[in-house]
Amino acid sequence: MTDEDAIRALLEESVRAWNRGDLEGFLSCYEDSGETTYVGKTVARGFAAIAELYRRRAPRGPGSLGTLAVSELELRLLAPRAAVAIARWSLSGEKESASGRFTLALRDRGEGWRILVDHTS
């Protein structure tokens, strides 16, 4: 499997986890590190802070998170174990819908690709 295939598989699995209401599975795509950073309406630094941010915002149970879709995915390998992903996301639910773009910095420290920086708007 190429690095690009591995990154695509990681992101596809995170979407599947979200869509089945598995927040912990979704979060597993992030590197469990104090360096991991999420930038959105707020900035969260460290995996624990990012996980707490999602847990506070997300309802619980299968189907409760809405339906997430990712499109227009562009991947750029920056170095043997560093990459950037740029894509469009859309989330549809019973009450509302939202969409935007994200930029992810990913790295592989020998345990598989993980998100190190997530800038979502």
Commentary on this structure:
It is a single chain. This protein is α+β, with helices and mostly antiparallel strands. It has a single domain, classed as Nuclear Transport Factor 2, Chain: A. It has three helices and six strands; from the N terminus they run H-H-E-E-H-E-E-E-E. The model has no long low-confidence stretch (mean pLDDT 93). It is 27% helix and 41% strand. Strands 2-1-6-5-4-3 form a six-stranded mixed sheet. The longest helix is centred in the N-terminal third of the chain and has 17 residues, at 3-19.
Overall geometric form: globular
- Rg from Cα: 14 Å
Q: How many distinct helices?
A: 3
Strand numbers in spatial order across the main sheet: 2-1-6-5-4-3
Number of strands: 6
CATH architecture: Roll
Fraction in beta strands: 35-45%
| Largest sheet entry | 6 strands, mixed
- Topology-level CATH name: Nuclear Transport Factor 2, Chain: A
In angstroms, what separates the terminal alpha carbons?
30 Å
By CATH reckoning, the class would read: Alpha Beta
The proportion of residues forming helix, as a percent range, comes to 25-40%
Secondary-structure-based class equals alpha+beta
Order of helices and strands: HHEEHEEEE
